[in-house]
């Protein structure tokens, strides 16, 4: 059996510091105001019982990825390790994938006109590292590895869930993502009212 | 060209995390954390990583310039470095010739040269090396230095703690030590530690705390005293620490805390008595693996020194000081591990009202040259004569209290400030006020040895080195000062006998094993020969009670017979180091405050005049920092500004409703000056449940009218309505004490 990747994000540890999203920006140089990764803030409750959750959001690398279906040139594909990739060679920037993604994880790069998104830092991982967001996280809230890795399995026992799991079966899992917070999450590249 | 990995140290905030620059063809591809840094352990925050934007800012100042229009007109022309150095040195030489070197005032904002600026002012003969300390953390530093004297900043052992009481620090977003603290607290929390935060606003730190306790501004000390009251009432104190290691008896402690009941604290602070009882019991139970942490929420007040002192005393009360998992301390000055190369100039004997303001006698004794709030008022009032103001890495018109108004006016006045040299990398608000502008190298283009208090409690030395060459004719401040000193006169040159910054650092780094080469390669050296600094006050001195070379007085203080130097104190039949105070104990009483400042000598609650007689319409204005910005230097960094590019005023929904405020529609905040005059700012509201209903909060960072197109014109600058006001004992700026009203919206 081929191993598949998982990313586990512990919202009880996340400090909302944006180190992950700026690391992503530096690593991949997504254009200003386009995001492969962004941290969303969700506030609940009334003074003094107010809570604020921080939710790092990125391509969920769905098992049932709607972007795959939507692409007219079949440029979006799933690797054996489960990561969802865009083939920049064949992408024509038609854009239905941007609309199809329920998470808003895909943007059209204004300089190339092509679709782009998180690739689980393929080049870093191939070189033996972990994605940039995970590497820099000051609270170690972002874990990345193979599903059967011991530390992933150990972490999973602490209770993780997915964002809109029924719809797309994401490979990114969250600890502490309650329904109310989930319902307030916005699309990653829809920054209106952020 | 191949990719190079060059270790250096961040300075996009003052936590100075170790970083590794990935560089190709003279361009920085990425900045990542250096795993060898004992504090940040390979992590780097958003600001650190966005420093690439700072280096590559297309609007940087690249050449020396001189003013050609009226001051403030923004009209400059390019000059050569030779011209610049000639002009400045000729003026400065005269001050020395005329025996008035104190007319040179060197104003700095972020000085991590760790002594080089002072070397210059000392060699010159002026005591006026003045900075922003009084604006950032003076009340806190004063309290720690007066009470234990070993250092001026705490280093709690967060990694091993079980309980953290946070009074007004936002260490998940800012704070000196930010990343190092955040990593450890997150881990401690996963291991079951509890974090309780007192803050007027749900900061991200408060949001990640197990409990957020909102309180009325400036009442942190009272809450701490009430916690102490409960601990003593329940007999949960550490009797041995109090008796052996503080300068007061347990009876004196009891007597002092007696009036501070939780009910009294609730009435003033708003924190419920029941909650205070609960926290007190939990804190005492967790001790000694319990600690406090503080910052501006607690101390940027007129009573800030006393608030800090009261919080600090909680750790003594339950015996956390220096314990594993407790409130620990270790010096943070790199000069302790690595003394700089000589010859060092003598300290000037002259004192001025700027360096030693006579209204702050206690500060002058404990922490001289640290007051900041007095600088511009004193210049305006003629209490100090200035000829040349040399401003380095500081943006006073933007970030000082009354910056955009009063400070700007003082800097515009050529009678008050006849000659103004500014060293800056960007077209900042202070560059606008300059006569000569010198292009600074950014921190990724310069040399320093640097370090902070080690959260591993083991000293280290780090290197900041150029990862790319400075663009245009930008220069490292060390190179600028070396050139200036050599041009002024031979006596100055004597102390600056270095070819350049690199040679100075190479000399300095010789005290580190492997020298500068080791640091160039690794970035960090940790002194593993030192054991972790737990209970440093119990360290043995090497003398025993019968040693013939010492005298022990009736208080158990041991001195050398020859020079009378205090070496320690008798404890359990040994002579141990103790604290660095005059009697080697933790100071629960400070008689010098009484003598010098005629203020209470115990950690009391000092109500802030006016705060507790607010009319229904009066509110408190406070300020804070975002996690992706510093106070005045990051708004031009695109990767940060795309996350936060505005700073609306936080206001509670009920308060907003009372004044008819609507989402995103600007409203006006008014303050009344002492002279009865009203000043106003217009801001957008951010209506949120996450703030105390009597409090408004505006973050610093925005409200630039210069600093390049990414920064300019975004958001609001609250400083024009924040009065210059200090704690009269601690000397720190009272940022969070401004009483304001809201003008009813016009449509209402």
Description:
The complex is a heterodimer of chains A (194) and B (748). Chain A is an alpha+beta fold and 194 residues long. Chain A has a single domain, classed as Alpha-Beta Plaits. Chain A is 24% helix and 23% strand. Chain A has 8 helices and 9 strands. Chain A has helices spanning 19-28, 66-70, 96-100, 122-126, 132-136, 150-156, 165-168, 179-184; strands at residues 5-10, 37-46, 49-58, 76-78, 84-86, 107-108, 115-116, 142-146, 172-175. In chain A, strands 8-1-9 form a 3-stranded mixed sheet. In chain A, β2 and β3 (49-58) form a beta hairpin. The longest helix of chain A is centred in the N-terminal third of the chain and has 10 residues, at 19-28. The mean pLDDT of chain A is 94. Chain B is an alpha/beta fold. In chain B, the strands form 7 sheets. In chain B, strands 5-4-14-13-12-6-7 form a 7-stranded mixed sheet. In chain B, β2 (18-24) and β3 (27-33) form a beta hairpin. Chain B is globular, with a radius of gyration of 26 Å. Classes of the chains: A alpha+beta (194), B alpha/beta (748). Chain A binds chain B through residues 12-19, 21-23, 25-27, 32-33, 38, 43, 45-48, 50-54, 135-141, and chain B through 29-33, 40, 42-46, 49-50, 52, 172-173, 179, 182-183, 186-187, 189-190, 202, 204-205, 207-208, 212-214, 627-628, 638-640, 642-643, 652, 688-693. Chain B: InterPro entries: Asp_de-COase-like_dom_sf (IPR009010), MoPterin_dinucl-bd_dom (IPR006657), Mopterin_OxRdtase (IPR006656), Mopterin_OxRdtase_4Fe-4S_dom (IPR006963), MopterinOxRdtase_cofactor_BS (IPR027467), Prok_Mopterin_Oxidored (IPR050612).
Secondary structure layout plus pairing:
The complex is a heterodimer of chains A (about 190) and B (about 750).
Chain A: E1 5-10, H1 19-28, E2 37-46, E3 49-58, H2 66-70, E4 76-78, E5 84-86, H3 96-100, E6 107-108, E7 115-116, H4 122-126, H5 132-136, E8 142-146, H6 150-156, H7 165-168, E9 172-175, H8 179-184
Parallel strand pairs in A: 1-9
Antiparallel strand pairs in A: 1-8, 2-3, 4-5, 6-7
Chain B: E1 4-9, E2 18-24, E3 27-33, H1 46-49, H2 51-55, E4 65-67, E5 76-78, H3 81-97, E6 104-108, H4 116-124, E7 129-130, H5 133-136, H6 138-147, E8 163-167, H7 178-190, E9 194-198, H8 204-207, E10 211-213, H9 220-233, H10 239-245, H11 250-257, H12 262-269, H13 273-286, E11 290-294, H14 296-299, H15 304-317, H16 334-337, H17 361-366, H18 375-381, E12 388-392, H19 396-399, H20 403-412, E13 419-424, E14 436-439, E15 448-450, E16 460-464, H21 477-488, H22 490-494, H23 501-508, H24 515-522, E17 524-526, E18 550-552, E19 557-560, E20 566-571, E21 574-576, H25 591-597, E22 619-624, H26 638-641, E23 649-651, H27 653-658, E24 667-672, E25 678-683, E26 685-687, E27 695-699, E28 738-743
Parallel strand pairs in B: 6-7, 6-12, 8-9, 8-11, 9-10, 12-13, 13-14, 22-27, 23-26
Antiparallel strand pairs in B: 1-2, 2-3, 4-5, 4-14, 15-16, 16-17, 18-19, 19-20, 20-21, 22-28, 24-25, 24-28
Helix pairs in contact in B: 3-21, 6-15, 9-12, 9-13, 9-15, 12-13
């Amino acid at each position: 059996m081929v191993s598949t990747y998982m990313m586990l994000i512990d919202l009880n540890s996340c400090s909302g510091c944006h180190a992950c999203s700026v690391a992503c920006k530096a690593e991949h140089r997504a254009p200003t105001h386009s995001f492969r990764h962004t941290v969303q803030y969700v506030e609940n409750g009334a003074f003094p019982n107010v809570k604020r959750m921080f939710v790092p959001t990125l391509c969920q690398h769905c098992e049932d990825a709607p972007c795959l279906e939507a692409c007219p040139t079949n440029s979006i594909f799933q690797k054996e390790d489960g990561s969802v990739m865009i083939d920049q060679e064949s992408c024509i920037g038609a854009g239905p994938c941007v609309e199809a993604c329920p998470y808003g994880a895909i943007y059209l790069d204004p300089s190339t006109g092509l679709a782009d998104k998180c690739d689980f830092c393929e080049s870093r991982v191939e070189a033996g590292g972990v994605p940039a967001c995970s590497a820099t996280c000051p609270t170690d809230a972002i874990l990345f590895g193979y599903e059967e890795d011991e530390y992933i399995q150990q972490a999973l026992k602490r209770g993780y869930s997915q964002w809109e799991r029924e719809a797309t079966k994401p490979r990114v899992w969250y600890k502490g993502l309650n329904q109310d917070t989930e319902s307030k999450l916005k699309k990653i590249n829809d920054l209106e009212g952020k | 060209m191949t990719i190079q990995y060059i270790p250096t140290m961040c300075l996009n905030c003052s936590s100075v995390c170790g970083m590794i620059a990935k560089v190709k063809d003279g361009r920085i591809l990425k900045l990542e954390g250096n795993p060898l840094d004992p504090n940040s352990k390979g992590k780097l925050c958003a600001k650190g990583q966005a420093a690439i934007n700072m280096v590559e800012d297309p609007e940087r100042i690249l050449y020396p310039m001189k003013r050609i229009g009226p001051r403030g007109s923004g009209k400059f022309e390019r000059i050569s470095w030779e011209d610049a150095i000639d002009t400045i040195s000729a003026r400065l030489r005269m001050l020395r010739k005329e025996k008035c070197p104190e007319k040179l005032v060197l104003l700095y904002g972020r000085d991590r040269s760790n002594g080089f600026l002072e070397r210059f002012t000392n060699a010159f003969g002026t005591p006026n090396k003045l900075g922003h300390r009084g604006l950032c953390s003076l009340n806190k530093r004063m309290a720690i230095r007066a009470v234990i004297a070993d250092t001026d900043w705490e280093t709690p052992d967060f990694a091993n703690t079980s309980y953290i009481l946070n009074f007004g620090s936002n260490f998940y977003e800012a704070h000196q030590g930010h990343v190092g603290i955040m990593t450890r607290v997150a881990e401690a929390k996963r291991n079951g530690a509890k974090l309780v935060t007192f803050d007027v606003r749900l900061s991200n730190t408060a949001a990640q705390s197990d409990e957020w306790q909102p309180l009325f501004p400036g009442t942190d000390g009272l809450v701490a005293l009430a916690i102490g009251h409960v601990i003593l009432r329940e007999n949960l104190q550490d009797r041995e620490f109090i008796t052996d290691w503080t300068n007061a008896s347990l009876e004196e402690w009891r007597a002092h805390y007696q009036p501070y009941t939780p009910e009294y604290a609730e009435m003033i602070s708003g924190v419920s008595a029941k909650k205070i009882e609960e926290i007190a019991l939990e804190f005492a139970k967790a001790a000694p693996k319990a600690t406090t942490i503080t910052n501006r929420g607690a101390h940027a007040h007129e009573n800030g020194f006393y608030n800090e002192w009261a919080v600090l005393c909680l750790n003594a009360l339950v015996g956390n000081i220096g314990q594993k998992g407790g409130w620990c301390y270790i010096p943070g000055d790199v000069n302790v591990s690595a003394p700089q190369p000589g010859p060092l100039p003598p300290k000037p004997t002259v004192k001025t009202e700027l360096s030693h303001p006579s209204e702050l006698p206690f500060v002058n004794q404990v922490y001289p040259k640290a007051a900041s709030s007095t600088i511009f008022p004193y210049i305006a009032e003629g209490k100090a004569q200035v000829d040349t103001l040399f401003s380095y890495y500081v943006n006073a018109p933007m970030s000082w209290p009354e910056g955009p108004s009063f400070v700007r006016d003082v800097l515009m006045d050529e009678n008050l400030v006849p000659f103004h040299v500014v060293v800056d990398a960007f077209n900042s608000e202070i560059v606008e006020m300059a006569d000569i502008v010198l292009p600074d190298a950014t921190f990724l283009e310069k040399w320093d040895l640097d370090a902070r208090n080690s959260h591993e409690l083991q000293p280290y030395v780090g290197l900041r080195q150029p990862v790319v060459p400075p663009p245009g004719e930008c220069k490292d401040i060390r190179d600028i000062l070396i050139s200036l000193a050599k041009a002024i006169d031979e006596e100055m040159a004597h102390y600056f006998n270095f070819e350049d910054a690199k040679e100075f650092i190479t000399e300095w780094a010789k005290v580190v094993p492997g020298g500068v080469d080791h640091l160039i390669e690794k970035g960090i050296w940790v002194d593993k020969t030192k054991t972790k600094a737990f209970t440093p006050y119990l360290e043995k001195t090497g003398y025993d009670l019968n040693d013939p070379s010492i005298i022990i007085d009736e208080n158990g203080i041991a001195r050398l017979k020859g020079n009378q130097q205090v070496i320690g104190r008798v404890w359990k039949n040994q002579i141990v180091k103790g604290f660095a105070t005059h009697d080697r104990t933790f100071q629960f009483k400070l008689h010098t405050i009484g003598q010098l400042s005629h203020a209470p000598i115990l950690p009391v609650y000092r109500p802030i005049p006016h705060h507790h007689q607010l009319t229904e319409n009066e509110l408190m204005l406070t300020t804070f920092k975002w996690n992706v910005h510093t106070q005045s230097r990051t708004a031009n960094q695109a990767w940060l500004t795309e996350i936060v590019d505005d700073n609306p005023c936080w206001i509670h929904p009920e308060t907003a409703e009372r004044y008819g405020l609507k989402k995103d529609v600007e409203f006006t905040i008014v303050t009344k000056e002492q002279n009865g005059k009203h000043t106003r700012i217009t801001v957008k509201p951010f209506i949120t449940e996450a703030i105390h209903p009597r409090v408004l909060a505006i973050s610093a960072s925005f409200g630039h009218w210069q600093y390049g197109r990414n920064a300019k014109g975004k958001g609001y600058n609250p400083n024009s309505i924040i009065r210059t006001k200090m704690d009269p004992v601690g000397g720190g700026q009272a940022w969070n004490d401004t009483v304001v009203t809201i003008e009813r919206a016009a449509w209402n």
